[in-house]
Each structure stands twice: as C-alpha cells, then as structure tokens.
Write a structure and sequence with these properties.
Structural class: mainly alpha
Low-confidence stretches: 221-230, 245-253
Mean pLDDT: 77
Shape: globular
Order of helices and strands: HHHHHHHHH
Helix content: 55-70%
Number of helices: 9
Number of strands: 0
Radius of gyration: 22 Å
Distance between the termini: 49 Å
Length: 253
C-alpha cells in the first residue's frame, strides 16, 4: 500500500452513527435483538421454533434452491472468465509487494474457510444425501450403490470449484478493491459499494446489511459448522431449564 493511501485511510473520519465502543447501532440492535428473541422463543416454545425453522428451510429450498444453484454456476463462469482474461493479471490491493507469502495466504484460507464449513459439512453432506435424501438432480434410491454418485456430485458442486469461485472470484476481488483503493472498511456492506455507492456505507441500509450477515453467520440454516444450531439450541435451552420435555438432550448441558 502506498504511503498516501495509508495516510488517507488513517485520517478517514468514522462513519456516521458509529459509536466508538459499540459500533453501528443498527448492526448491534438488529443482530442482538434477533438472537435474543430467538433464544427467548426457544425457551418458551421449542416446538414452535423448531417448526418455524423447518418450514423456512423447506420454503427456501423449494422456491430459491434453483436460483442459488444457478447463481453459483454463474459466479464460477465469471471467475473463470476473469482468470483467463487480461484482467486476470491485474495486481490487486494497491501494493508494491504482497504483504504475506503464498504459503501463508493458503494457510489462512485453509484454517478459516475449511476449518468451518469445509471440515464439518463438506464431509457430512455426501453422507446425508446418501442415507437420507437424494439430490433433486438424481433419482437413485438412498442407501444404494447408485446413490453414491449423486451424493458426491452434489457435494462437489457445493464445496468444490464453485465455493472457491464465490470466495476468490466475487467476495475477495470486491473487498480488496473497495478497501485498498477506495478506502472503505472491511464490512459486509462494502460488497455492495460498487452497486449503491456511498449510500450503502452509512445509516440504516448499511447497518441492516451487516446485521443480516451477522445473523447468517451466528445462526445459519443448517449449513456450515453450526448446521445443527437452529434445532439443537432450543432443545438444549429447554433441557438446561429443567423442563421434562427435553430430558433426552440433557447431555448438551
């Protein structure tokens, strides 16, 4: 990074509405409010919360599942096009030399991305598709030798080149350019900076975007390291409170 760029980033004023201790009140209010509400409802009525989570997942899979998969494929195609085009040789980050070596960069990726979703669900998803539910694109009966191909194919699509394309071909490029060249913060809202400009960096819009991302990480709908959280947390909460309805889950305490 150039000295001028470093100085400009250090001298940049804090975003409007930011608190030096608590950060953006929109992010804190929405994310903490949602999580506390979820915990409270889980303790009050575990069956209702479990049913809501299941219904939401079923609705998302039915109406948005194909869209998400097409979006993944499109991201992969764009990433390949960028890589083989003249833009693939562009130096990102406004740096004269890389801050870290290639080995350390790969180690960071492996210890963050793969340590969560990769290690947990990349191994669990093919097993799930094999014994519980055949992927939509296949019609083999679960538990048979024919079901292995569909289970592995679906898992490779989720955790193979497509996942890396999302990380390196979309998220990283946008964040690197917006942060090092434009001086924007490393926050989820920055991903939409090329589309909405400065409007998304301040106020309720940017705060809501960040809060949704926080909620998506803390309480994911059956994906990643916390795949079981939406269903297991209500059971654990009720069990720890002494309710006889959840004695089977008392080991979670």
């Amino acid at each position: 990074m150039s000295k001028e760029q470093t100085a400009r980033m250090k001298q940049a004023p804090p975003q409007a509405g930011m608190n030096a201790t608590l950060g953006d009140p929109w992010v804190l209010g929405i994310s903490a409010g949602f999580i506390l509400l979820f915990i409270g409802l889980s303790i009050a009525d575990v069956d209702m919360v479990s049913g809501m989570v299941g219904d939401a997942f079923a609705w998302t899979a039915k109406y948005l599942g194909s869209y998400f998969q097409l979006l993944l494929l499109l991201t992969f195609v764009i990433a390949i096009a960028v890589a083989i085009s003249p833009a693939g040789g562009a130096v990102m980050g406004d740096l004269d030399q890389p801050e870290i070596s290639t080995f350390r960069w790969i180690a960071i990726i492996m210890c963050t991305l793969l340590a969560g979703g990769g290690v947990f669900f990349a191994a669990g998803e093919p097993v799930y598709h094999f014994i519980a539910q055949t992927p939509p694109a296949f019609d083999a009966e679960t538990g048979t030798a024919e079901a292995i191909q569909g289970a592995l194919a679906q898992s490779f699509m989720h955790w193979g080149f497509l996942a890396w394309a999302v990380l390196g071909g979309l998220t990283s490029l946008v964040l690197v350019h917006a942060h090092y060249v434009k001086g924007q913060p490393l926050q989820p809202r920055t991903l939409l900076y090329p589309v909405f400009g400065e409007r998304v960096m301040h106020g309720a819009i940017g705060g809501t975007i960040d809060a949704v991302c926080v909620i998506s990480v803390v309480a994911p709908g059956r994906s990643g390291l916390s795949a079981f959280w939406p269903r297991r947390w209500p059971m654990a909460a009720v069990s720890c409170s002494g309710s006889p309805r959840a004695t089977a889950h008392s080991s979670l305490c």
